[in-house]
Amino acid sequence: MVGGPLMVNYSFSQAGNDLSQVAPIIALSAALLIALVVDLFLGRRRAGFVVAIIAGVGYAVAAGLAILLWDGGGSAYHGFATGDHLARFFEVLFGGLGVATVLVSHGYLKKRAMAVSEFHIILLAASTGMMALAAATSLVSVFVSLELLSVSLYIATGYDRSRTTSQEAAVKYLMVGGFASAFLLYGMALLYGATGSTVLSEIAQKATATSNPLLMMVVILLGAGLAFKISGAPFHQWTPDVYQGAPLPVTGFMSVGTKAAAFVMIIRIFNDGLPHLSGEWQLVLALVAAASLVVGNLMAIIQTSVKRLLAYSSVAQAGYLLIGVIAGGKDGLAAVMFYLAAYTVMNFGAFAILTLLSGPHGDTDRISDLEGMGRRHPYLGLLMTIFMLSLAGFPPSVGFVGKLWLFTAGVNHGFIWLVVLAVLASVVSVYYYARVLMRVWDTREAGSAELLARPGVVVVAVAALAVIALGVLPGLLLAVSTTGAWPPT
Amino acid sequence: MLLTATWLIPALGAATLGFTPLRRQAKLVATAFTLVTLALAIVIALTFDVHASGYQFVEKVNWIGDQNALYNVPYYLGLDGISLWMVVLNSLIGVVAVIATPANHPRGGRFLALLLMMQAGMAGVFVSLDLVLFYFFWEAMLIPAYFLVWQWGEGARPGAAAIKFVLYTLVGSLLMLVGIMGEYALTNAHSFDLPTLVTLAHSSRPPAPALQFGLFALFAAGFLVKVPVFPFHAWLRDTYMTAPTPVLLGIAGVMGKAGAYAMLRILLPLFPNPNLWWNWNDVIPVLAVIAIAWGAFMALTQRDLKALVAYSSLSHMGFIVLGIFTFNAQGQEGAVIQMVNHGLIVPALFLLIAWLQQRTGTRDRSAIAGLAPRMPIMAGIFMIVALAALGLPGLNSFVGEFMTLLGAWQLAPWLAITGCLGLILAPIYMLRVFQGAMYGPNVSLDPEVAHPDLRRTEIALILPLLALMFVLGLFPNLIGEAIAAVGQPMPW
Fold this sequence. Notes:
Helix content of chain B: over 70%
Low-confidence stretches of chain A: none
Radius of gyration of chain A: 21 Å
Strand order of the largest sheet of chain A: 1-2
Structural class of chain B: mainly alpha
Number of strands of chain B: 2
Low-confidence stretches of chain B: none
Strand order of the largest sheet of chain B: 1-2
Oligomer: heterodimer
Largest sheet of chain A: 2 strands, antiparallel
Mean pLDDT of chain B: 86
Mean pLDDT of chain A: 89
Number of helices of chain B: 19
Radius of gyration of chain B: 22 Å
């Protein structure tokens, strides 16, 4: 809670310290402002290229700052934000995601004749929101960052203005996202009412009475709102429509970015803010996880659109991730962080391949569009195979190791029924990931190879290499994830 | 380093073939890689100390994390008298499978690359002493097998057969994965290290029988499907019918053994007392005996030769599992001997069937007849293999099956008596095939075939297998002696 007397003592050294805690976010905001101004003064053609470079540099600088300032993080701005390892981990992840998105989207925007500079500016704003969400430790800063992220993504979803599907998706996303925000805000208001504070560490000390009906309402409302954001069933209905309507680079960006940011938010609010109500929110999240596993994996089977298939797959993946959150503890949270990094690499890689293959007339969407791809582009087919096998959780990919940590944490903390359900659900998932591969390696059709944008190909190749390398040698990523996790109080 | 090389050399071979545009030379390169692996396996076998106890050629380094990390998973390899024979068998069948691949196979380079990948995965399974590493290799052998069956499979719908194979085995192996996690977390061992876990299981404070019961079921799910044991064999027929011959040599000859090997290496040592509602150790032998009888009866009814051998294979794998679960020296020694024997006989049978099909254009038992006068060499070789398969004394299979049944008798006489049914039915279906195909009225051959009898290359390919059938039949102690050098205490 911001108090009057505290403001008086705000010294320059304090200000410097606070700034260093949020330096990556500041760097990204600066890049956003510079990009806005540059876009005003340069011509349309040149502005696009320059803004793309500014965005790329901004992401790289933000990620670099997060690595430089890795240690020595702590609370800043009276508990409103933090620069701890958890925040730094995701700042690096989002910085890398930003660079990859800039590289992948470049050729796509040119091919589809979309405005370039606005695209990067919107995604810069969304990324700023994501990073701020990772660092936010007060209900106020959490909500403000979430809205920055969400509003940017509503616009990004409708970026393909010539298509009604894109606009429809944007409106749907806005409406449903608004609902979710309302749930969250209501929950936060009640939480403030129950504890008299918006700072999560203070809430943790005060929200101890498990019998308080107000706090029960809080858990349910926050659980529902957060489930919307991570697209957990039964609050996942927007996901397939939005994934399908949004332009491919946006879908790829938000499928991993929003999910990661929302999971940090869950960890911060539930694990940090409400440790004494863990029994209650574990139950709520376990129900969401079980529903997501079943609904996501079963619905994905019958899809004929790759985007919708990956949307339902992302619902299912939310289910796997929730197991780690529910398990909690150092192993559970480290597993969540590990798997979010893994998911970012493999899922973005899959969307990046679809982006590369999109022609000037529309996105690669139908599964049949992938027919014969392995014949036309054997190496791209191999990379797609790696991503799909990793999403399905086969060794030696990072997807397998991530699931191994998540499930081990689940078993270790006594959620065996959930782990068995998740394991059976992932058998089902193999079926639909294999369906994609069947089309990719279809032997009947071939056709001629399209020209692919070079920077995008590099990103995809690097992502696939990372999937294998982190799968064979996961030690470093595991160690880094472990530093970000902490045992619950 | 020797054990790492056993899986790394085929893996490097796969990478070489996959990423270089070799066309004509692909088979030559693949053969070279498998021959080097075989040579390595022979070196390992010759330097293996049969009088030592404990694991040999041990390699242990930190792989994921170290002592201070959240998880500490070592890269831990080792070899004992049981795994030694599996490594040798795998590298031998690897050579045979590569040479059996037709030189003009469609997309041959990739086919051979995947074949070598599968061999690498199986090699890793037989030498891992760490559960996570074991699971790594366990799945690594499945992915290439899936692509091989689907992309190069025979029949109308190879994709459907391949996905059935994968989903079936995956349900089992993912349940095994839950078992691995449970073993790690619930026994409070917090280790994936197999010798450590075995020591815990035989310590004065082993995991509770109820916990062992649950974990046994999870692990067994993976192994029973892989072998397969009745009633988990539904994938068997479709997969065998679909898989191209070189792949089938690997799947039938070695991969099934991986399941049996895992029972011996993991299931029995980790869970000596899996007892809650019932004792699992009493249930599995019954399933094995049912598999023996069921497989033999189903083999009697098949007209397609591949399907016939598939079911006879189910029956013979039943003997192996029965031997493992006798919990005495004869039975388990017989099981290991039988694993090697079956790994020699089934590939030989599938090779002969493939060659018959090339020459006659069919695998239908009733459509092939009177071949012996025109194919005397084929007839002779077929006879030896058929006699070996039905367990004629003097050929290899006899010793293993006899010891298995001897062991089973000590456990429960009725198990041995029912198991004998397999021995009685095997001559019926094997000799019926041999007589029908080789004697009787002549049928017309494919006129395109200039040289009906086996070519010299084909004879050279199958001759090592035949020679081993005789050698192991006459000197079964070659295997039996080394088995005594087990890496960890066995129940006998």
